Amino acid sequence: MSTYLRELEGKLSNDPFFTEKMNGGGGVDGSVGMRRVWIPGPVIVGAGPSGLAAAACLKQRGVPSVILERSNCIGSLWQLKTYDRLRLHLPKQFCELPFMGFPVEFPTYPSKQQFVKYLEDYAEKFDIRPRFNETVIEAEYDRTLGFWRVKSKRGRFEETEYVSRWLIVATGENAEAVVPELDGMDVFGGSIKHTSLYRSGEEFRGKKVLVVGCGNSGMEVCLDLCEHSATPYLVVRDTVHVLPREMLGRSTFGLSMWLLKWFPIRLVDAFLLMVSRFILGDTARFGLDRPIMGPLRLKNSSGKTPVLDVGTLAKIRSGHIKVRPSIKRLKRQAVEFVDGKTERFDSIILATGYRSNVPSWLKEGEMFGKEDGMPRMPFPKGWKGESGLYAVGFTKRGLLGTSMDAKRIAEDIERCWKADAKLCTPTMQSPPST
Ligand SMILES: Cc1cc2nc3c(=O)[nH]c(=O)nc-3n(C[C@H](O)[C@H](O)[C@H](O)COP(=O)(O)OP(=O)(O)OC[C@H]3O[C@@H](n4cnc5c(N)ncnc54)[C@H](O)[C@@H]3O)c2cc1C
Question: Where in the chain is the domain with CATH 3.50.50.60?
Fold first, then answer.
């Protein structure tokens, strides 16, 4: 078997893709048949920051990889699904990918355009060229052969099966928009859109808009609407920790990281809440009740991120943004809330978050949870599964977590890559048939 692999790898030294047609030419329906492609290194699914970081770390260790990306660009979440005014929520030094810092001339919180430029420069620096417009529709470990079979679709008919010893899942915690089922959604006469489709408040000028969800995106969209002369209302269904983005002249995130080196998490939480109250006042007075658990402990236990305020709270305080309770049902041009009140709205924006899409394509029962598509093992153990399966960017710790995962994965695969293929490929009996 290892001789077979060596032969294949020999062929690949000139041609990065060794390709065979499985079904020959076009079918009666015009399909071009499924190709099978042997990949000597890992297959990475997703060309967001996590996929790029994994590919760069592997490259630094001499391991080639192939990235499959469903969209037509790198960092598609940032390029195609975020609003114009978005900036990194955390200071740039906490969002660097491995081996490349942000340019010194970039501000502490780079804009979306600057972050995309950084990703493009990163891909160029490490000569990473993803295969775009390829959606992975299925991936399964073939126990008989000891390989991952990764099926992708390009357009309506073109299907390819990539065969590889390693599969790195980099499809992100935010792969699909979460759109709740609201009673009366079909009768509401105004527009309803998820924040992934929201670009700017310009199109809502003069309109009364209900924003559902009070995470970082919902709060920032409300602020953007205010700045475009719309009238935003914010639905707050749950408790939420709002912290100032900066405190005592430092970023709240940076200060928290530093304090955690010296003090227990409960004490740091108490300190953050005390300073927040001093700077922002009692948020409960504006309808934003705090959870019982402190912000850092809550983040660790449930992954719920505190909102870093960039000016929204002042607008709530001044009455430019009004807080409303949960929605009971939608009517033709109005919304009925659970407190029994009904108000007219022109539009609804759903800042209801995202979810992983891993269960929809990865046929595997151990590493990822079926419900949430997240690794079952808590951080920092969620990056490695069985049989050459890895996950990058599922730590609920943003880009800092991505960097940690990418470095660990590359180190692990390099060990295997360098060792005899025989030792690294369990239960191999025959070459992948075509
Ligand atoms: C509005 C917003 C602001 C944020 N700000 C910050 C911040 O300031 N700091 C921070 O650290 N984090 C931040 N985050 C967290 C965010 O998750 C990361 O910034 C980052 O984008 C995660 O990178 P990723 O590569 O893991 O996932 P993504 O960026 O989501 O990339 C995943 C890629 O996989 C592709 N993909 C998905 N499914 C398939 C499939 N089946 N086949 C092929 N390709 C597929 C997608 O098209 C996408 O390109 C923010 C998130 C959002 C939504």
Answer: 2-175+356-424, 178-353
Structure tokens at 316: 């709530």
Q: Is residue 47 predicted with pLDDT exceeding 70?
A: yes
At position 172, the amino acid (one-letter code) is G
Residues with CB under 6 A from ligand 1: 45-51, 68-71, 76-77, 82, 86, 88-90, 95, 135-136, 170-175, 217, 357, 361, 393, 398-399, 402
* Segment 176-203 mean pLDDT: 97
What architecture (CATH level 2) is domain 2-175+356-424? 3-Layer(bba) Sandwich (3.50)
The model carries a pTM of: 0.91
Of ligand 1's listed atoms, the one at least distance from the Cα of 52 is 25
Report how far ligand 1's centroid is from the alpha carbon of 356 (Å): 10
Ligand 1 pocket test, pick from 68, 162, 171, 403 with the greatest ligand atom count within 8 Å of Cβ, gives 171
pLDDT tens per residue across span 184-195:
999 999 999 999
Question: What order of strands is seen across the sheet that includes strand 231-235?
Answer: 191-194, 347-350, 208-212, 231-235, 322-324
121 C-alpha vs ligand 1 centroid, how far in Å?
A: 17
Q: Whose CA is nearest to atom 14 of ligand 1?
A: 398
Given CATH 3.50.50.60, say whether it is the number of domain 178-353. Answer: yes
Mean confidence (pLDDT) of the chain = 90
Q: Which residue has the tokens 């539009």?
A: 347
Banded pLDDT at 379 (limits 50, 70, 90): confident
Whole-number Å distance, alpha carbon 332 to ligand 1 midpoint, is 35
**Which tokens in the block code for residue 289?**
């009740």
- Contact call for residues 156 and 139 (beta carbons, < 8 A): no
pLDDT-based confidence at residue 20 (cuts at 50, 70, 90): very low
What is the mean predicted confidence (pLDDT) over 308-314?
95
* Residue 67 and residue 58 in contact, taking contact as beta carbons nearer than 8 Å: no
pLDDT more than 70, % of the chain: 89
Q: Where are the alpha helices (DSSP H) in 216-369?
A: 216-227, 252-260, 265-280, 295-302, 312-317
